[in-house]
């Protein structure tokens, strides 16, 4: 009885902390992306850096209250195809006609959500609507970051199908928490993306292609590492949590050979690229004279506000659960 109670308390602490780190990480990634923008955008974004940072986590908060939000954060590609998924339709209309909207919502729609959010952001730039520019910039950053996490591209999102439960938080929380000080986040200036659908899919498939390594390297390590040294208890504030030991984490991080750092760098760069692409698509509006308008939703958004019949499974984690320093 007491043992069960302790387990429940430990699990609760772990879940609670994991969410906080996910929030923190999304905020860092959005914040860092601002520093890759060209001067004509940088001044506006820098002036609103606290908003872009703080609201980077709004999509995760909505997951629990807005119908249709949950599938926007992932896509279980391995349900449909094997890498490189050449025959899987990249366009929403085609995918919908083949698999149905309900099925796509059950297995995740993040690639198309990135495109739809880009449409909204471009519209906000055209209208020079400051509130919506900020809202959709923050949202877009979140979905792009999620799409760079290999475990956001699989049905086996937490290793539950391969007896590796907990690997989601291990890869995206524990490793960056321990090693982020070694990471570099200078990713260069934003680029204009001509074919955004292709760009988004290239990035998701790049993440998906690393899934095999994420799982097999941990499996390999688990077989060779002393079992009694795999986990450790660590103090977090006033709580004691069970987590992967530092030695086991270091060994896994070395085996991954820079994968976590690289995916985080790509997230930062690609957020800047797509913010910039929306701004160019809107005709390079002058951002120096924006005022707040009334918050409203632009017309023509697909899949927004509908009640979806989702035969979904729980989506355990947020995006990158990491601790990063301020730029
Ligand atoms: Zn998310």
Number of helices: 14
Largest sheet: 2 strands, antiparallel
Listing every helix as H and every strand as E from the N terminus to the C terminus, the arrangement reads HHHHHHHHHHHHEEHH
Taken as a percent bin, the fraction of beta residues is: under 5%
Structural class, from helix and strand content?
A: mainly alpha
Give the spatial strand order of the biggest sheet.
Answer: 1-2
Question: For this structure, what is the CATH homologous superfamily?
Answer: P1 Nuclease
Give helix % range. 55-70%
CATH class: Mainly Alpha
Briefly note the CATH topology name: P1 Nuclease
The average pLDDT is 85
How does this model look, in words?
This protein has 327 residues and is mostly helical. It has one domain (2-281): P1 Nuclease (Orthogonal Bundle). It has 14 helices and 2 strands, in the order ααααααααααααββαα. It has helices spanning 2-33, 39-47, 49-54, 58-62, 77-80, 92-99, 101-107, 110-127, 130-146, 167-179, 196-209, 211-224, 246-256, 259-281; strands spanning 231-236, 239-244. Strands 1-2 form a two-stranded antiparallel sheet. A hairpin with a 2-residue loop joins strand 1 (231-236) and strand 2. Helix 12 (211-224) packs across helix 13 (246-256). It is globular, with a radius of gyration of 20 Å. Residues 5-21 and 293-327 have low confidence and may be disordered. The protein binds zinc ion (ZN). Zinc ion (ZN) is lined by residues 59-60, 73, 142, 146, 318-319.
């Amino acid at each position: 009885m007491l043992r069960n109670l302790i387990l429940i308390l430990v699990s609760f602490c772990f879940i609670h902390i994991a969410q906080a780190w996910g929030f923190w990480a999304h905020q860092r990634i959005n914040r860092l992306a601002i520093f890759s923008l060209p001067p004509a955008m940088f001044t506006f974004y820098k002036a609103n850096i606290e908003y872009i940072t703080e609201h980077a986590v709004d999509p995760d908060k909505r997951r629990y209250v807005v119908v249709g939000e949950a599938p926007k954060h992932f896509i279980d590609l391995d349900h449909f195809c094997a890498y490189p998924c050449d025959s899987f339709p990249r366009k929403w209309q085609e995918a919908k006609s083949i698999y149905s909207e309900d099925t796509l919502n059950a297995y995740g729609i993040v690639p198309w959500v990135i495109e739809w959010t880009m449409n909204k952001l471009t519209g906000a730039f055209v209208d020079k609507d400051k509130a919506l520019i900020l809202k959709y910039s923050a949202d877009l950053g979140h979905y792009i970051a999620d799409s760079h996490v290999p475990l956001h591209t699989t049905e086996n999102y937490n290793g539950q199908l391969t007896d590796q439960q907990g690997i989601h938080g291990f890869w995206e929380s524990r490793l960056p928490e321990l090693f982020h000080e070694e990471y570099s986040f200078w990713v260069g200036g934003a680029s204009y993306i001509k074919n955004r659908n292709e760009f988004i899919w290239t990035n998701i498939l790049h993440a998906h292609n690393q899934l095999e390594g994420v799982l097999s390297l941990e499996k390999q390590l688990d077989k060779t590492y002393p079992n009694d040294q795999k986990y450790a208890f660590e103090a977090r504030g006033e709580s004691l949590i069970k987590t992967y030991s530092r030695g086991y984490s270091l060994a896994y991080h070395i085996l991954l050979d820079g994968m976590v750092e690289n995916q985080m760098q790509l997230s930062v760069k690609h957020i800047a690229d797509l913010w910039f692409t929306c701004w160019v698509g809107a005709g390079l509006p002058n951002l120096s004279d924006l005022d707040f308008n009334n918050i409203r939703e632009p017309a023509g958004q697909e899949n927004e506000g509908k009640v979806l019949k989702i035969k979904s499974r729980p989506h355990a984690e947020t995006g990158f659960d990491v601790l990063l320093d301020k730029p």
